[in-house]
Recover the amino acids of this structure.
């Protein structure tokens, strides 16, 4: 447990740094370029490479962990490194071909993605797309390296790599933005992904990785990953499909509905990207190790610990977003053209998105368990069921609730998906549920509700002192969140929740080392 908690803690800190730098990056870009045709061109140009990276990159990183873990446990390192080398070489070749095609057909792709663009805007977007398209090579191979390093229980540098990419983009805007404008931003984006790839290479020595000039697609390990890449990519793209459905349905609503949904979804995904991603990344190699050893009792225990860790982190975050939704949205977004009306639209969407936050976090752990067993079909089929449910619920709720109905439909689809995944996994792996996990869940929900009640009372009371200005709102939220979080920690400590005890033990060890 301590090793899992330590790994999760390391990835959590790195994810937090990366997320903070992501907000700094967006702020720097906004300050330098504002909201203009040039930034519209940049965002559209970046859409297709980013989509390929988000789907294929994650698929590569996920697929390689159980395969490499198996070779390492069987003491077949040399064969394992040949398989990894074949995948690296094959991935580089595939992504190079996609890059060349993307650069050739850039104007055509721009007209598909942004049919409203014309003339010089199309030319600029195509030019920026050609600059950034090679980034998929470095992101794809970089994600493969992330998977290999995670399989070797190396987490710090792979988790820091996205933060480095953000730092490079920030520096590019600050140093070159004034002279080279949005073109400098595009080159900075490409350089960021190159940095993401390069920073991981030295760490390969720690796991004794040896590169081979080989591309053997007949090897069973290579073939298994090749045949798995399509269902894995489709499964990972479920969330992208749900977001696309939201935009499709919301396009028929009042102006600002799509923006409200997107901004609310971005806020909801913040704790997911920090906490749920950290835990799922840290426990995945342990899951794969349990499967490779055919020790399904260990796999069940790892799943239970993962579910417990995301529960103690995500539930209070969800309650906090629900009860403080409006002041949070006001602090983060309300300035310039984003007025009080937009804050209300976004905050109500955030409420309904947050209702499904815990279920989505649980789904990330359950899905990784299926991936560890190299069962890619179950998450895909169950995910498609949730997509169908989301469409039906959206059609039902949209006339009554507007854009909020779309957010609620997403949450209800996540609830359905969680119960399907849990039931299906229970059939394959016995003992996922336990009294300890039930206790963790009940105590966490109880402590979070108490925390939420205190947060509402405290924010309301402090509002009389600090007012509703941005500065007053910032001070009020800081005090409210700090005091509420402290109350939550004290409550779960009083009930001796294992996951909190493990994280505190790590902090104590780090303090001793520092002293």
């Amino acid at each position: 447990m301590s090793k899992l908690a330590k790994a999760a803690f390391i990835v959590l800190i790195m994810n937090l740094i990366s997320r903070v730098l992501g907000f700094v990056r967006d702020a720097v870009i906004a300050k330098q370029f504002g909201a203009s045709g040039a930034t519209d061109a940049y965002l559209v140009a970046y859409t297709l490479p980013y989509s390929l990276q988000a789907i294929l990159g994650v698929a590569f990183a996920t697929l390689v962990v159980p395969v490499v873990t198996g070779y390492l446990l069987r003491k077949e390192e040399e064969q394992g490194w040949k398989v990894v080398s074949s995948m690296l070489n094959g991935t580089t070749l595939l992504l190079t071909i996609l890059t060349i095609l993307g650069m050739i057909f850039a104007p055509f792709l721009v007209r598909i993605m942004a049919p409203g663009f014309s003339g010089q805007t199309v030319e600029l977007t195509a030019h920026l797309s050609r600059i950034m398209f090679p980034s998929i090579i470095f992101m794809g191979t970089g994600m493969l390296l992330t998977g290999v390093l995670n399989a070797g229980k190396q987490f710090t540098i792979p988790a820091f790599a996205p933060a480095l990419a953000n730092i490079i983009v920030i520096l590019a805007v600050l140093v070159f933005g004034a002279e080279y404008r949005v073109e400098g931003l595009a080159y900075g984006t490409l350089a960021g992904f190159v940095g993401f790839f390069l920073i991981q290479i030295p760490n390969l020595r720690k796991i004794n990785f040896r590169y081979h000039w080989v591309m053997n697609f007949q090897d069973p390990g290579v073939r298994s990953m090749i045949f798995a890449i399509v269902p894995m990519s489709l499964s990972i793209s479920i969330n992208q499909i749900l977001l696309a459905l939201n935009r499709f349905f919301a396009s028929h609503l009042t102006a600002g509905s799509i923006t409200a949904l997107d901004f609310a979804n971005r806020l909801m995904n913040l704790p997911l990207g920090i906490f749920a991603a950290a835990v799922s990344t840290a426990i995945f190699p342990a899951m794969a190790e349990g499967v490779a050893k055919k020790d399904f009792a260990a796999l069940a225990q790892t799943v239970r610990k993962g579910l417990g860790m995301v529960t103690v982190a995500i539930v209070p975050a969800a309650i906090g977003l629900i009860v403080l939704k409006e002041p949070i949205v006001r602090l983060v977004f309300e300035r310039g053209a984003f007025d009080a009306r937009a804050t209300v639209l976004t905050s109500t969407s955030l409420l309904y998105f947050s209702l499904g936050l815990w279920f989505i976090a649980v789904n990330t752990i359950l899905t990784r368990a299926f991936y560890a067993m190299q069962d890619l079909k179950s998450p895909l089929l169950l995910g498609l069921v949730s997509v169908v449910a989301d469409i039906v619920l959206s059609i039902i709720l949209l006339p009554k609730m507007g854009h909020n109905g779309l957010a609620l439909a997403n949450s209800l689809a996540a609830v359905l998906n969680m119960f399907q995944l849990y039931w299906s996994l229970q059939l394959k792996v016995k003992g996922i549920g336990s009294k300890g996990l039930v206790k963790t869940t009940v105590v966490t929900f109880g402590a979070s509700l108490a925390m939420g009640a205190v947060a509402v009372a405290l924010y309301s009371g402090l509002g009389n002192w600090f007012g509703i200005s941005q500065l007053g709102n910032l001070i009020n939220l800081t005090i409210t969140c700090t005091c509420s979080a402290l109350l939550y920690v004290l409550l779960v400590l009083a009930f001796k929740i294992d996951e909190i005890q493990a994280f505190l033990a790590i902090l104590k060890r780090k303090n001793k080392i520092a002293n």
Notes: The chain is about 85% helix and 0% strand. Confidence is low (pLDDT under 50) at residues 509-515.
